[in-house]
Automatic annotation (TrEMBL), chain A:
InterPro entries: AAA+_ATPase, ABC_SmlMolc_Importer, ABC_transporter-like_ATP-bd, ABC_transporter-like_CS, Mo/tungstate-bd_C_term_dom, P-loop_NTPase, Transp-assoc_OB_typ2. Residues 4-240 form the ABC transporter domain. It comes from the Bacteria. GO terms for molecular function: ABC-type transporter activity; ATP binding; ATP hydrolysis activity. It comes from Bradyrhizobium cajani. This is ATP-binding cassette domain-containing protein. It is a peripheral membrane protein.
From TrEMBL, chain B:
The chain crosses the membrane at residues 89-111, 123-143, 174-194, 215-237, 274-294, 324-354, 384-406, 418-440, 446-468, 497-520, 553-571. Its main location: membrane. GO terms for cellular component: plasma membrane. It is found in: Cell inner membrane; Cell membrane. It is a multi-pass membrane protein. Keywords: Cell inner membrane, Cell membrane, Membrane, Transmembrane, Transmembrane helix, Transport. The keyword Oxidoreductase does not apply. Belongs to the binding-protein-dependent transport system permease family. This is ABC transporter permease subunit. It comes from Bradyrhizobium cajani. The keyword DNA repair does not apply. The lineage of its organism: Bacteria, Pseudomonadati, Pseudomonadota, Alphaproteobacteria, Hyphomicrobiales. Residues 85-293, 380-572 form the ABC transmembrane type-1 domain.
Length: 364, 583, 338
């Protein structure tokens, strides 16, 4: 297995910069996801790794081999990069049977027929599609096509696997199932994987590390928990989940030096304690992140980091949970409570944030 | 490069593929390959055209003393020529519009409805395209002349009227005769476009509450825009260059068009006026170029990728009892455009003379004389050789050019597209002279002139525009993913072109091949100027027979050609059906 | 009667063959030997596969064992190929059979033909045919009037060109287009000269319908679309036997086009070409043409022609179009037939 290294990679189309100075190292066997809204440059980055898009700056290496480096006029054709790739549309060739689709990467590499047969069967078994080998490709359902696409991408045991939103065309249940299956397969085979999605749940469930991108730049790289709990910017924070973001001012720094640091903050009609890993000074404006799942109806504990009072303006039953929306002096807050909680529109209530659940980031 | 494209037919493509793949690495070799392609196309189109440009600006043709002047062009911009232009554009526009309507109707009926026997109808509708125009012209002359035309006699007998119903020697007659050729031509384009389209797109429209007709108008047609516009342009341009119909039906009605004017200036002037003929052709070419630019403008920045990797299954619309109406429409067209004229030819071929159907004139002599004629067989062999080689080379070249111009962002691709268009915009009669001059005036060591290669090269040049159009229209509908997926999974550029793009577009490839093949079979202007003894082709032999008063023998050969078409189309459709059934 | 005829034929044949014998000097034997060594001759012709032409070539090949390659082209294509090849220095052709005016034109515009030299059989040419330095007459295509015998009653049959101007034929004459170069204009030019200017003016008043396909047009007349077609090249009607048509040779005579041989510059097989020219003027060769309703150019052939061909082989000639008058004639035709 090989690592993938992107150094200062950029891509401009005329005057428009689609990918700007991206640095990323995907370790051998690692599963890394590029996450971001559409147009953030994640797909372009993936396509540059695949060789489908030329880089205009920087260097990309796969294993020890430099595959793209415009400064030295290197651009290795996609077919010589030894990759597997799953496309968003699956790109199942409609004129071939399932078997031929999967066998294609081996056929173009001129493997002996016996080997092709054996490896295709193995790949199809891996995705539990062996019964469909002789089916014409277009006669498959979406999920089946996706499995075929994965089998095809892995049939010649590529060093690196690239996936471009492979689950986005599936329904929710299938998406979860396929994602899990794929992740366990990837772990078992230990293939270096670069995965592109705009779906944060998918990203968090599957990845070793997530790369959050916006406007062609990397905002943050980290493990899913880190990205979720310790975003380094408001943009990252707001992209993951649907957090409450409150304006506040830093009023003090807790004396004990720790990681993360703790700050006292004051907002409009409330005050509390928030964590953060940026060196904020007293009097500085910050945005405080309060995740809906960390808010609860209080008072319960004495160690709550902050409390708010307000009127319920929306109450939605969601089966397992109930979503509430509260109008407070700090703005509207939404949060989730157990489904059986009595809460009617118009009720006044007090809520509080669990200890160490508030997170401060610089605004913007 | 030229050896490459002709070798590809006989050698397995893969061996070249490896070399080609190596060649396509990095940017510098790509530029080299692109330059080689441009050079080849330039030799095929620019070179003969430059000879003609010289001819249009020089008082005498190449190789003769004379002076440069603009008198050819000055002669073009005169009042009589303006009338000729108006006639030409009017006739071609009329026939293109009508035949496009018919072609879209038939394309839809054949590919998208449950009309009975549509498999056979598909073959039958396209038949007229493959019959030499001179034969159907003669047949229509017999059917529709105002004095003793069969149709008029029947009409007068039925209605007791004194006046004839139709007169083919008229403006309408010219349009009508051209219509019979352009409808099948356009149909061949359109039906593949219909087939290649994802029915989900139509279904989506129906789900949004749009009626069948509205869906057709708002979704189906716009999706087929590239194919339809391309076909329209090709057909319109071909209409401007159509020769037999205006000569046969227009001359008696005193309708002159550009081609007959060119024909006059070359063949029927005291001294052949090549200067005027080529100047007129260049002006026409300029006009056509504007059309092509208009087409680019229309299609630019729009995506028509309806064939995606998601797969689809063809869907037919259940017409219920209406399917008998659509069936009747197809049959009616078939009867009028095929049974009437071809029946006339078939019937006539068993009699000593066309139009004299008496028992004592019943004979098989014409079949005997054709089948026993060594010259005909030799011409058949030559034509087949040239047709197979030429059509295959043309389609491979066309596939590559279409790929470069529609699916890459390489700089210089527009140039290649333009180069491939050029031969189509030059009236065949004049371009043929360009080839003659071009091949003859090559440096002495290059002996293309007077060999069978001259014909082959000319055929490839003449066929390339169609092959490029056919393949571009097909590529336009293929999603990029299908191709990129192949590249990523280890297939070289060449393997991808061959195994994915052409394999997916192969119904179009096959149609293009058949069009080119029969184009070669019919080509006369260049053939007669470039053939040499031993390399006689069918069109030249047919011309000899015709000029020799053997119209009946000519129609025997024409019928044999039709039989061949029938066979070709049948095999082709069988293969397509097998392909479709795997979907 | 037939016995007399036979005698005449025999006499003609004797005369012809004795002329051949006497001309076979030592020089000519050298030509024949050289021709056989060359082994091949390339002819550019406008015959377009005519069977009588093919028959003559076949008899030549059989007689001398020299292969003939004949490139059949239409007039303007032939002229342009010859011109281009000569200008480009690709000398593929040896000899050509084209109309007198085309040779005149070639002489005027460039240097494409060379001296033919002595052709023994040329001594046997009949009046008014003559060789020149660079050309030898090959055959002649006279033209007359074609009528549909069902639509034209015997008493109405035109006898003179003037009869075409009878008001009853107004709008009923199909004609080869007289404006462009071709048989139509040849007829126009000759009639203008021989019948006088008023003739053509009156003919124009008859509103003849123009067409451009002589072979098919004759059939249209046969089928009854029009009762009359002009000009009918005799030879083109010889294979319409059985159809209700008849070719009339007007009493004033027939306009004609004359085909001649010329020897191309830098011919690769000049001797074989000369031998072929000579062979074309053999009485047997000319007889093939006479039987196809053309006018033989040597003495002794017309007499031996088949009965149905005899009238045409002996037709009275009216004249042919000349290069010098051509532009004026085309201009005049364009004026009369706007």
């Amino acid at each position: 297995m090989a690592e993938v290294l992107l150094e200062n990679v950029s891509r401009t189309f005329g005057g428009f910069t689609a990918v700007d100075d991206v640095d990323l190292r995907v370790a051998a066997g690692e599963f890394v996801t590029l996450l971001g809204p559409s147009g953030c440059g994640k797909t372009t980055t993936l396509r540059m790794v695949a060789g489908l898009e030329e880089t205009t700056g920087g260097r990309i290496s796969i294993g020890r081999r430099v595959v793209s480096e415009p400064a030295r006029n290197i651009h290795l054709a996609p077919d010589r990069r030894q990759l597997g790739m799953v496309f968003q549309s699956y790109a199942i060739w409609p004129h071939m049977r399932v078997f031929d689709n999967v066998a294609y990467p081996l056929q173009v590499r001129r493997r002996p027929a016996a080997e092709i047969r054996e490896r295709v069967e193995r790949a199809l078994r891996l995705v539990e599609m062996e019964r469909f080998a002789d089916r014409p490709a277009p006669a498959l359902s979406g999920g089946q096509q996706q499995r075929v696409a994965i089998a095809r991408a892995m049939v010649f045991e590529p060093e690196v696997l690239l996936l471009d939103e492979p689950l986005s065309n599936l329904d929710a249940r299938l998406r979860t199932q396929m994602g899990d299956e794929f992740r366990s397969l990837q772990k078992r085979l230990g293939i270096t994987t670069l995965y592109v999605t705009h779906d944060q749940d998918e990203a968090m469930a599957l990845s070793d590390r997530i790369v959050v991108m916006r406007g062609g730049r990397i905002l943050q790289i980290g493990a899913p928990t880190e990205i979720y709990q310790r975003p380094n910017s408001e943009a990252v924070a707001s992209f993951l989940g649907a957090p409450n973001l409150l304006d506040a001012t830093v009023t003090g720094i807790e004396a004990t030096p720790s990681d993360p640091s703790r700050f006292t903050v004051q907002g409009d009609g409330w005050q509390g304690v928030a964590c953060g890993n940026q060196p904020f000074a007293c009097g500085q404006s910050v945005r405080v992140l309060a995740r809906p799942e960390d808010l609860r109806i209080g008072p319960i504990a004495s160690d709550a980091d902050a409390t708010w009072r307000g009127e319920v303006i929306a109450s939605v039953f969601r089966g397992a949970r109930r979503s509430l929306r509260l109008r407070t002096s700090a703005g509207e807050l939404h949060f989730e409570v157990p489904a059986l909680t009595e809460a009617r529109v118009g009720d006044m209530m007090q809520i509080e944030a669990a200890r160490s659940s508030l997170w401060a980031v610089a605004p913007g | 490069m030229s050896t490459l494209s002709s070798n590809e037919i006989t050698h397995p493509p893969m061996r070249w593929g490896i070399r080609f793949a190596r060649l396509m690495e990095g940017k510098a070799p790509r530029r080299l390959a692109l330059a080689a392609l441009a050079l080849l196309l330039a030799f095929l189109s620019l070179y003969p055209l430059s000879m003609l440009l010289y001819g249009s600006l020089h008082t005498t043709p190449p190789g003769m003393a004379g002076t440069f002047n603009l008198s050819g062009y000055i002669q073009v911009f005169t009042w009589p020529t303006a009338v000729v232009f108006a006639n030409t554009v009017g006739i071609s526009l009329l026939k293109t519009v009508f035949s496009l309507l018919l072609a879209v109707l038939f394309g839809w009926i054949i590919s998208r409805t449950d009309t009975p026997m549509r498999g056979s109808l598909e073959v039958l509708i396209t038949l007229p395209f493959f019959v030499p125009p001179i034969l159907t012209a003669m047949a229509w002359g017999m059917l529709g002349n105002p004095q003793v035309g069969v149709i008029n006699l029947a009409w007068q007998w039925l209605s007791g009227s004194e006046t004839p119903l139709v007169n083919v020697y008229s403006y309408a007659g010219v349009v009508w005769h051209m219509l019979q050729y352009s409808t099948p031509f356009l149909f061949l384009f359109v039906v593949e476009a219909f087939r290649a389209m994802d029915p989900a797109l139509e279904e989506a429209s129906r789900m949004c509450g749009a009626s069948q007709w509205r869906t057709f108008r708002r979704v189906t047609l716009p999706l087929m825009l590239p194919a339809v516009i391309t076909a329209f342009l090709l057909s319109f341009i071909r209409g401007l260059e159509s020769f037999e119909s205006p000569l046969f039906f227009g001359t008696p009605a005193k309708i002159e068009v550009v081609t007959t004017a060119i024909y006059n200036s070359i063949h029927h002037q005291s001294i052949p006026n090549y200067q005027f003929a080529s100047a007129l052709s260049f002006v026409i070419m300029g006009l056509m170029f504007l059309l092509v630019i208009w087409q680019w403008h229309l299609l630019r920045g729009r995506s028509f990728q309806t064939v995606t990797g998601k797969g689809y299954s063809p869907r037919v619309i259940k017409l219920g009892p209406w399917r008998w109406l659509t069936f009747a429409v197809c049959v009616l067209f078939f009867i009028i455009s095929v049974v009437l004229p071809i029946g006339q030819l078939l019937l006539g071929s068993f009699f000593q003379f066309f139009g004299f159907y008496q028992w004592d004139m019943l004979t098989l002599d014409h079949y005997r004389s054709v089948l026993g004629n060594d010259e005909v067989w030799r011409a058949f062999r030559n034509t087949f050789l040239l047709g197979f080689g030429g059509a295959s080379a043309t389609m491979v070249l066309g596939s590559i050019v279409a790929y470069v111009s529609t699916r890459t962002r390489w700089s210089g691709r527009q140039l290649i597209d333009v180069l491939a268009w050029l031969p189509w915009m030059m009236p065949g009669m004049v371009l043929a002279v360009g080839f003659l001059w071009g091949f003859a005036f090559l440096p002495g060591a290059i002996t293309i002139y007077g060999t069978i290669w001259a014909l082959l090269i000319a055929y490839v040049a003449l066929g390339t525009p169609v092959s490029v159009r056919v393949m571009s229209a097909a590529y336009h509908q293929l999603s990029f993913d299908l191709e990129e997926c192949s590249r990523v999974h280890g297939a070289s550029w060449w393997q991808t072109l061959w195994r994915i793009l052409i394999a997916l577009a192969w119904p179009s490839f096959a149609v293009g091949w058949v069009l080119t093949f029969f184009g070669i079979m019919r080509e006369l202007s260049a053939s007669v100027l470039l053939y040499s003894v031993g390399s006689e082709v069918l069109s030249v032999v047919l011309l000899r027979m015709w000029e020799n008063g053997q119209a009946e023998a000519v129609s025997v050969v024409g019928l044999m050609m039709m039989l061949l078409v029938f066979l070709f189309r049948w095999v082709q459709l069988r293969l397509i059906k097998r392909y479709v059934s795997t979907l | 009667m037939s016995r007399v005829l036979k005698w005449i034929v025999c006499a003609g044949w004797l005369v012809g063959s004795s002329a051949t014998v006497s001309a076979q000097s030592a020089d000519w034997t050298a030509v024949v030997d050289a021709a056989k060594k060359e082994g091949k001759v390339v002819v550019y012709s406008m015959a377009l596969g005519a069977p009588y032409y093919a028959a003559v070539l076949k008899s030549f090949e059989a007689k001398y064992g020299i292969k003939v390659e004949s490139l059949d082209l239409r007039a303007s294509e032939l002229a342009e190929r010859v011109r281009t090849e000569q200008a480009a220095g690709r000398f593929l052709g040896d000899t050509e059979i084209i109309t007198t005016t085309m040779i005149e034109e070639q002489l005027k515009t460039g240097d494409y033909v060379q001296k033919v030299g002595d052709i023994p059989n040329a001594a046997n040419l009949r009046e008014p045919f003559k060789t020149s330095d660079v050309s030898v007459p090959a055959y002649v295509q006279p033209m007359g009037i074609l009528i549909n015998t069902r639509l034209v009653k015997p008493e109405e049959e035109p006898k003179s060109w003037n009869d075409l101007n009878d008001p009853k034929w107004k709008g009923k004459i199909l004609s080869d287009d007289m404006r462009p170069l071709g048989s139509g204009n040849t007829m126009f030019a000759v009639l203008q000269k021989k019948m006088g200017a008023p003739f053509n003016e009156q003919l124009a008043e008859q509103k003849p319908v123009f067409s451009r396909d002589m072979r098919n047009d004759a059939r249209r007349v046969a089928r009854g679309e029009y009762p009359i077609y002009v000009p009918q090249v005799f030879a083109f009607a010889s294979d319409l036997k059985g159809l209700p048509v008849k070719v009339v040779i007007p009493q004033e005579g027939a306009p004609y086009a004359q085909m001649e041989f010329a020897l191309l510059k830098n011919a690769a097989h000049p001797n074989a070409a000369r031998l072929l020219i000579n062979h074309f003027l053999e009485i047997d060769s000319q007889l093939l043409y006479a039987n196809a309703w053309m006018l033989p150019v040597v003495k002794g052939a017309a007499e031996r022609a088949n009965d149905d061909a005899k009238a045409f082989a002996n037709a009275k000639l009216m004249g042919m179009a000349t290069l010098a008058e051509r532009p004026a004639m085309m201009e005049l035709a364009r004026k009369l037939y706007q």
